[in-house]
Amino acid sequence: MLDRSPPSHGRFITFEGGEGVGKSTQVKRLVAALGDQSIEAVRTREPGGTPKAEAIRAFILQGRSEAWGPGAEAVLFAAARYDHVSQLIAPNLDGGRWVISDRFSDSTRAYQGLTGGVDVRLIDALEVLALNGHKPDLTIVLDMDPETAFRRVLEREREAMLAETGDRFEKEDLEWHKRLRDAFLAIARNNADRCVIIPANQTEDALADEIWDVMTRRFPELQYEHTA
Ligand code: TYD
After folding, report:
1. Chain-centre distance of CA 153, in angstroms?
2. Which of 11, 69, 163, 184 has the fewest CB neighbours in a 10 Å radius?
3. For residue 16, how far is its CA from the centre of ligand 1 (angstroms)?
């Protein structure tokens, strides 16, 4: 007899934090670790994740919307997110796959809202519209002292300048990195049921282990055994 039971719903996990904290590497490692436990996980990122959202990403990160100011940019990030949620995140979760996103809506709240000065009412409204109820099950906030983060970004910038791939958010100063860090910490504290803050200034392996620890505590279906 055919098994007609619907696949169970996937889990939605987001990574957040300032610049240069090592999110992308950890997102990749987590997807691989889930794969080791036969859990199908989709790796994605914001801004981006779908062709339309990637087009908006290119427009913003090339600096073409910079003169419009952080309010209009918050709307653009939300437009990208609306497509990302409806076309990629929701269908995958409904299909039983886990979705791991490198940045999500907390980035708009931190960058455009708390750091960029956009009215919290606009940020709240955009979030309701773009998410359409798809709140992450877990958000891992990678936290790093701003001096180290700033140094890492400067190194990345030097490489990007050589390769001409740098984006416009990578040219801010130390004071801005401090405000950004405080913004993410405030968001995590205000959403303590969803967010876990993890110090990012440790080796890649140690960080991956700590993230896996958090995952197994949060999601009982995962086994603790894990070789990072
Ligand atoms: P990316 O190259 O993905 O940077 P990172 O490796 O730091 O994640 O570029 C994304 C940039 O866009 C990053 O500087 C953060 C910024 N951003 C916002 O300002 N608002 C948002 O809502 C999102 C998703 C990203």
Report:
1. 17
2. 163
3. 9
Q: How sure is the predictor about 163, in pLDDT bands with cuts at 50, 70 and 90?
A: low
CA-nearest residue for atom 4, ligand 1, is 19
pLDDT of 156 reads 83
Mean pLDDT of 60-67: 95
**Which of 3.40.50.300, 3.40.30.10, 3.50.50.60, 3.10.180.10 is the CATH number of 12-217?**
3.40.50.300
Residue whose structure tokens are 């979760």: 93
**Ligand 1 centre distance from Cα of residue 82 (Å):** 16
212 CA distance to ligand 1 middle (Å): 24
Q: Report CA(61)–ligand 1 centroid distance (Å).
A: 8
Arithmetic mean of pLDDT over the chain: 92
Identify the residues whose C-beta falls under 6 Å from ligand 1: 19, 23-24, 46-47, 61, 77, 103, 107-108, 111-112, 167, 169
Q: Is the pLDDT of residue 227 over 80?
A: no
Mean pLDDT for 175-197 is 97
Helical segments of 132-191, H only: 146-163, 174-190
pLDDT at position 73, please? 98
Q: Residue 119: is its pLDDT beyond 70?
A: yes
Q: What is the C-alpha separation between 119 and 109, in angstroms, rounded?
A: 10
The reported pLDDT for the residue numbered 178 is 94
CA 125 to chain centre: 19
Cβ neighbours of 200 (radius 10 Å): 24
Strand partners, 99: 12, 42
